[in-house]
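Lab notebook, bench 4. The sequencing result for the construct came back, and we need a structural model before the next group meeting so we can plan mutations. Quick request posted to the team channel:

Model the 3D structure of this chain.
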Amino acid sequence: MSERKSNLFARLGGRIARWFRETKSELKKVVWPTRKQLANNTAIVLVSVIVVGAVISALDAVFLLVIHRFLPFIVGLF
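Done. Here's the predicted structure in token form:
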């Protein structure tokens, strides 16, 4: 019975070792961005987040005005 368990652990250990070897191999293939590319991409993401946030806030304000204007009885429920 113990022989069977050790075989299981040996196979599991082999799989884990293979996974680490393959992961290391794949990370060697990664092309990391330069500092300039990273700064540019970060700026694009920040501007996009600000623009989308502004659009959502504007839509929220418009919908709130519409609800207050056309459905005043619902506002009293909240």
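The mean pLDDT is 87.
Will bring this to the meeting.
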